[in-house]
Amino acid sequence: MATAGNGRDPVMADVARVAGVSHQTVSRVLNGLPNVKPATHERVVAAIEELGYHRNSSARALATRRSQVLGVVAFDTTLYGPASTLLGIERAARQAGYFVSIVSLTAITRETIREALDYLAEQSVEGCIVIAPKRAAVEALTGLRGPRPLVAVEGGVAPDLPVVCVDQAAGAHQITRHLLDLGHRTVWHVAGPRDWLEAESRVAGWRGALEEAGAAVPEYAHGDWSPRSGYEIGRTLAARPDITAVFVANDQMALGVLRAMGEAGRRVPADVSVAGFDDVPEAEFFSPPLTTVYQDFGEVGRRGISVLLRLLDGAAEPAAHAPIEVVPTRLVLRSSTAQAPDPT
Amino acid sequence: MATAGNGRDPVMADVARVAGVSHQTVSRVLNGLPNVKPATHERVVAAIEELGYHRNSSARALATRRSQVLGVVAFDTTLYGPASTLLGIERAARQAGYFVSIVSLTAITRETIREALDYLAEQSVEGCIVIAPKRAAVEALTGLRGPRPLVAVEGGVAPDLPVVCVDQAAGAHQITRHLLDLGHRTVWHVAGPRDWLEAESRVAGWRGALEEAGAAVPEYAHGDWSPRSGYEIGRTLAARPDITAVFVANDQMALGVLRAMGEAGRRVPADVSVAGFDDVPEAEFFSPPLTTVYQDFGEVGRRGISVLLRLLDGAAEPAAHAPIEVVPTRLVLRSSTAQAPDPT
DNA sequence: GCCCGAGTTGTGAGCGTTAACAATGTAGCT
DNA sequence: AGCTACATTGTTAACGCTCACAACTCGGGC
After folding, report:
1. Which CATH superfamily is domain B12-55 in?
2. PANTHER family recorded for this chain (chains A, B) (predicted)?
């Protein structure tokens, strides 16, 4: 823990002096370059240890023109999905030797996204990942001047923008099909908010499954992802005895629907089946345990980084179309769905 | 969008040339220093706009010896609590003009924390916040060489370490008192994992309230915060009809307890009252809606940053004892708690 | 007309690192 | 012994910015 004598942090020159070599040799050791005699190497390492030296990343970044920082723009990281994606991103980035700098948005508008990207640009990030679940976000992104390369995650396809997303439509299709297979005439839907790409894809998947099966496509309402909105929509659904199956666009809203059904005296799954989407950790412990669709948020984050790194490496961006990676979903069957009740 | 002519990003000198001034004047404009003639200021701004110039933060950091980056070490950011705290930290830091670099740990040990701090030190952070909910973390922190200043958040008190935390004990006391006031003979407890400071404080608060009231202090089991563990412990609790009130150390485990009670045919709150801790957004929509204790995670994050900034400013660290900030809790009464049933 | 001071602008030297190149030393060969 | 080839080390100049200071302007008072 010996300090450099005077107050300031030790720099490479200090290490060099202590080890009796030039600063360049220290640099070589630090960067693992070849052609350093073992004995020298050892002396340098000892000096580094003795002084408690560590490299000044700003100077390094300045000289190499690489900041080693990746930017992340996120939205409502308090939710399970974004939080998990963020975690995946952070882990993958660190493993690849990058730092991660994040900006959380309170609202997604062209303006806030612009600001966030400018802010990250100020930090000289080498690339950016934007968790962009809303249509507005994807639109804001295209043709915006800002840090490159840029990859969108959890967003919908966009021209000229590399994207990684979960196969929402397939998941919704899958679970709707499941409900239909259980003998339900049709399946009602509680959708996510308008403008959210995930919500739209889930509607599309649901509608598709219904149409394929020749089932009627009922009206549906939009919630805002919160349990409360699910509860409110759930109450109107619970009031109609002809409804025997509901696919809710996320688990939190499904929780609200479950409660509404319970209050109205409709038993789940005996009278009505309810299914969710996301498979949050709590879903297994709802009453009853929720049938839902698992999506691997962490994988989305990891692939996002992997695409970004590829772009960072690759000489030029792929000419024709931006790469699109799709992460599959998985049906999780539990006890909130069952055979349709006998029509009496 | 005019580029500097050749390929590379424009630098201050380019702006200076275009505006017909010296690089120093550009710097002055950029930093909002006084004594720049309005006309000059305008020319510089125009040049910046024209070139799409933005400051190279590495060079700036090198020259000023300030990286403008704050490090955050977090643990399981997928949970509502840490995620909210992280959000509070990020917002507050950005507002103060700092960037935030985060490291998420998979496990909290002396070793992983050391690594995380080393990693952040490599990035020349100006200070660190560690979200350290476990005893091991706080211990690992004291007397560890690494980036300074350092503040711990959500951890327990530690010597020589500034800390911001929620008044867990008071919250636990409050809710136990509430249950007692409803006429319950005593209150059972489902604790969080050993080694977690929050869990320990909640046990202490619960025990204190019981002792003050002269109530018996029952045995209690440790869960792991997950709904599943709550469910498992809940089953043994549900099997004993003499138990009429349970205080569960967090909402997720309370969810599991709720389910166990339901399965065992014990009605909540008619037969048994159940209370949680945290007030996650879903708690209001459990069946029944959960009485719980609200804690302001965001505020913890904000205060953490505020303490850190004060330390960064202040000449020296406060001599005697490290500052400790305590964030209060608030009781949230819903329908999972009620009068004790008539003892028949 | 000249000098002074405040307001404005320019100059040069770092900040701590890496990159390019020059200068050693050291074997191995003829 | 003399030379070459290679391994090892040192030297110098960027990288793009801020800081300290020097050098100009331009009025007003004598």
Report:
1. lambda repressor-like DNA-binding domains (1.10.260.40)
2. HTH-TYPE TRANSCRIPTIONAL REGULATOR GALS, LACI-RELATED TRANSCRIPTIONAL REPRESSOR
